[in-house]
TrEMBL record, chain A:
GO MF terms held by the record: oxidoreductase activity
The FixC-like C-terminal domain, residue ranges: 366-434
Transmembrane segments: none
Keywords: FAD, Flavoprotein, Oxidoreductase
InterPro entries (alphabetical): FAD/NAD-bd_sf, FixC-like, FixC-like_C
Sequence similarity: Belongs to the ETF-QO/FixC family.
Gene3D superfamilies attached to this UniProt entry: FAD/NAD(P)-binding domain (3.50.50.60)
Source lineage: Bacteria, Bacillati, Bacillota, Bacilli, Bacillales
Superkingdom of the organism of origin: Bacteria
Full protein name: Protein FixC
Species per Swiss-Prot/TrEMBL record: Polycladomyces abyssicola
SUPFAM superfamilies, per database record: FAD-linked reductases, C-terminal domain (SSF54373), FAD/NAD(P)-binding domain (SSF51905)
Automatic annotation (TrEMBL), chain B:
Family named by the database record: To ferredoxins from P.putida and C.tartarivorum, ferredoxin I from A.vinelandii, ferredoxin II from D.desulfuricans.
Pfam families: Fer4_ETF_QO
Domain 4Fe-4S ferredoxin-type, residue spans: 52-81
Organism: Polycladomyces abyssicola
UniProt keyword Hydrolase, yes or no: no
KW Electron transport (keyword) present: yes
Signal peptide: none
SUPFAM superfamilies: 4Fe-4S ferredoxins
Name of the protein this chain belongs to: Ferredoxin-like protein
Keyword list, A-Z: Electron transport, Iron, Iron-sulfur, Metal-binding, Nitrogen fixation, Transport
Length: 435, 92
């Protein structure tokens, strides 16, 4: 494959890469789709929620053929105490028509998504690592691979190589991620008979439920767990910030086993058989960690560019949208015959005008608050106080409600270290969630 | 239904290269490292401290990259396994 030149090389056949490859191939560009795994998706992992809208934007005609597990009709949020939970949830038939989101498994989905790009004309080169970018001056002109004679040349390289993005690092557009900019998530796929899933989660047909939980389950580290229903498996996982994990010296898989023992979780996964264990980093730096998205002969997309909205567990949708937009910018560059920063900046503009920038900017303070605030306060003491307050309010033991209310408020103040601190945390939280 | 890490890793399909993609740059650094964090935060127990050196069970690596960022001295040379090698998830 030496000295062949293409319009574009896409590195990484995840949602961002396949969306970019599809978009460009469909417009008639010559595109290579590189993937280091045995097949697309072989190395990939997510919690498990896939959103329709952004998939439909890439594949208006085929999105409904995507291999998915269950369509989500109910989303639950659990604030965990040690043996308790204060819960919040929303279920709505309206999520069915049109679908809002599904649970999915990346091995199936990514293969299918990449096959759409292949069908549109992208040239798949799998089982191949892009070891470095080939540059001429400040221009990216191709990639070096770990194959013999494995140099590939193109007018543009779309970098979609995921959270570790060794190619992005090589470009020097962002410093190495710091341990407080990423979370490590570990997950298990737990097989359970379909009927059990239907019964335990109150589901009919291919309806599904998602549960996000935070609190004592993360053992004093900033993090969030999840339990999602698939067809005949459950996805159970927990992610915690790497800087907290380093400090706490807790083994990630022991954390996951700890989660399994919580009474709210235990009864839902009981009797299941673990089919797969997995782990992955999640970019959680937010807007302030997003690098420039394009330059001379390159665009960077998805996780590689920190495009994750961790507050709403959205990532694959931002990846697909950013991949599509990068693809559109390259198509325009091809039309103009100019692949310099000036034209490819169109991609940055598209992202800036989309929900991606708006959502990430809205939550840009979240990373700082998680970094600065005591994780024990946010993830142990406050959730515990809320659980104790709820316990008091619902317990009928002859104590008048007025006194219970006072006690409940007292718990919260104590947890935060006084009224003033409680207000301060509240204000900080509000500001962090509102840009 | 908790299982040991060995049992958990047994659920993943590996195609192991005979060359490690994870290399300790300088064992002297490990010797002076007080916290030995890599022996805790790795989700696949790749790293172990023998009392003299850090051993690297790269065969177990799930390619997450935590050690690349997590080692306080950036003492781990981290690259991807060769194309097609390493883990292959069945579900993902």
């Amino acid at each position: 494959m030496a000295n062949e030149k293409f319009d574009a090389i896409v590195v990484g056949a995840g949602p961002a890469g396949s969306a970019a490859a599809y978009t460009m191939a469909k417009a008639g560009l010559s595109v290579v789709l590189l993937e280091r795994g045995e097949f697309p998706g072989a190395k990939n992992l997510f919690g498990g929620v896939l959103y329709r809208k952004q998939l439909e934007d890439v594949l208006p005609d085929q999105w409904h053929k995507a291999p998915v597990e269950r369509h989500i009709v109910e989303q639950r949020i659990w604030l965990m105490g040690k043996d308790s939970a204060v819960t919040f949830s929303h279920r709505n038939e309206a999520y069915k028509e049109p679908y809002n989101c599904w649970t999915a498994l990346r091995v199936k989905f990514d293969q299918w998504f990449a096959s759409q790009a292949e069908a549109a004309g992208a040239l798949p080169i799998y089982e191949t690592v892009a070891t470095e970018l080939i540059t001429e001056g400040d221009r990216v002109v191709g990639v070096r691979t770990d194959r013999e004679d494995g140099d590939l040349y193109a007018d543009v390289v779309v970098i979609a190589d995921g959270v570790n993005s060794l190619l992005g690092k090589q470009l020097g557009i962002h410093k190495e991620w710091q341990p407080d900019e990423v979370s490590l998530a570990v997950k298990e796929i737990i097989a359970l008979p379909k009927e059990k899933i239907q019964d335990r989660f109150n589901l009919e047909g291919d309806e599904g439920v998602t549960i996000e939980f935070m609190g004592e389950t993360s053992l004093g580290m900033a993090g969030m767990g999840f339990l999602y229903t698939n067809k005949d498996t459950l996805s159970l996982g927990i992610g915690v910030m790497v800087n907290h994990l380093k400090k706490k010296k807790i083994k990630p898989y022991e954390l996951l086993d700890h989660v399994k023992k919580h009474p709210m979780i235990r009864r839902l996964v009981e009797g299941g058989e673990t089919k797969e264990y997995s782990g992955h980093l999640i970019p959680e730096g937010g807007w302030n960690s997003v690098p420039p998205l394009s330059g001379n002969g390159w665009c960077i997309t998805g996780d590689a560019a920190q495009l994750v909205n961790f507050v709403h567990r959205e990532g694959s949708n931002l990846a697909m949208t950013s991949g599509r937009m990068a693809g559109e910018a390259v198509i325009e560059a091809k039309k103009r015959g100019d692949f310099s920063r000036e034209t490819l900046r169109l991609y940055d503009q598209k992202v800036a005008e989309s929900f991606i920038r708006k959502d990430l900017v809205k939550y840009k303070g979240m990373h700082q608050i998680l970094k600065e605030e005591d994780p024990e306060l946010l993830f142990t003491r406050l959730p515990q106080a809320v659980n104790r307050a709820a316990y008091e309010m619902f317990l009928v033991d002859g104590v008048p409600k007025g006194e219970k209310q006072k006690k409940a408020i007292q718990y919260l103040k104590q947890a935060a270290g006084g009224t003033w601190n409680l207000l301060k945390v509240g204000m900080k939280g509000w500001r962090a969630m509102n840009g | 239904m908790s299982s040991s890490i060995a049992e958990k890793l047994f659920t993943i399909r590996y195609k192991v290269d005979d060359q490690s993609h994870l290399i300790i740059k300088d064992q002297q650094v490990c010797l002076t490292c007080e916290t030995k964090e890599c022996t805790h935060f790795c989700p696949a127990d790749v790293y172990d401290w023998t009392g003299e050196i850090t051993t690297v069970a790269f065969e177990n690596c799930i390619e997450c990259g935590t050690c690349r960022i997590g080692c306080p001295y950036y003492n781990i040379h981290w690259v991807y396994p060769k194309g097609g090698y390493g883990i292959t998830y069945k579900y993902g």
